[in-house]
From TrEMBL:
One of its GO terms (biological process) is L-methylmalonyl-CoA metabolic process. PROSITE patterns: VOC. Pfam families: Glyoxalase_4. Residues 3-131 form the VOC domain. Keywords: Metal-binding. The keyword Metal-binding applies. InterPro entries: Glyas_Bleomycin-R_OHBP_Dase, MeMalonyl-CoA_epimerase, MMCE/EMCE_epimerase, VOC_core. It comes from the Bacteria. This is Methylmalonyl-CoA epimerase. One of its GO terms (molecular function) is methylmalonyl-CoA epimerase activity. NCBIfam families: metmalonyl_epim (TIGR03081). Transmembrane segments: none annotated. Belongs to the methylmalonyl-CoA epimerase family.
Length: 140
């Protein structure tokens, strides 16, 4: 694992939360992205070498809606940057961690991601993320 890539924070109103974190970090939201397959609207802020990912649920089935219903707003996951996500998934599975997908999925901010169940990581949802290869300039 290279570093903490981002910390995911579950929020009920991403516009209000964005204003709070912009003030807190003294930096603007640099990107917003809707990731429908994960059921989330995201907003990203840079905090030194790391990022804060604000997450609002798109519907009641979203993991964010379920999390807020049970625990309230707050830290939802920690994401670690990895160089080779497939190799890291195999290493962690071998160590007994419960992976939530067999293959990396497309995440936000041009990342390949895989989640590790919080029950196998001391109650913390872990995300692995690797920068996704960009398509060649001018297409194929
Ligand atoms: C934008 C894309 C991406 C990125 O690029 O960065 C993201 O970050 S997307 C973020 C949202 N997506 C996910 O969270 C996907 C992974 N999560 C899941 O698959 C599920 O949320 C889960 C972890 C498998 C839990 O789902 P489920 O079992 O259906 O929900 P429950 O509510 O019944 O929870 C079971 C159990 O787990 C506890 N829990 C749930 N979420 C968390 C959490 N984030 N941190 C800690 N613990 C969590 C929950 O409290 C339940 O515990 P008990 O009540 O003790 O059984
Ligand atoms: Co995330």
């Amino acid at each position: 694992m290279n570093k903490v890539e981002h910390i995911g924070i579950a929020v009920t109103d991403i516009k209000i939360a964005s204003l709070i974190y912009e003030k807190l970090l003294n930096t603007p939201v640099y990107k917003t992205e809707r990731v429908a397959r994960e059921g989330v609207q995201t907003a990203f802020l840079q905090a030194g070498p790391n990022k804060i990912e604000l997450l609002q649920a798109l519907d009641d089935d979203s993991p964010i809606a379920k999390f807020i219903a049970k625990k309230g707003e707050g830290i939802h996951h920690i994401a670690f940057d990895v160089t080779d996500i497939v190799a890291e998934m195999a290493r962690l599975k071998n160590q007994g961690f419960v992976l939530l997908s067999d293959e990396p999925k497309r995440g936000a901010d041009n990342k390949l991601v895989c989640f590790i169940h919080p029950k196998s990581a001391n109650g913390v949802l872990i995300e692995l993320c690797q920068e996704a290869p960009r398509p060649p300039e001018g297409g194929v």
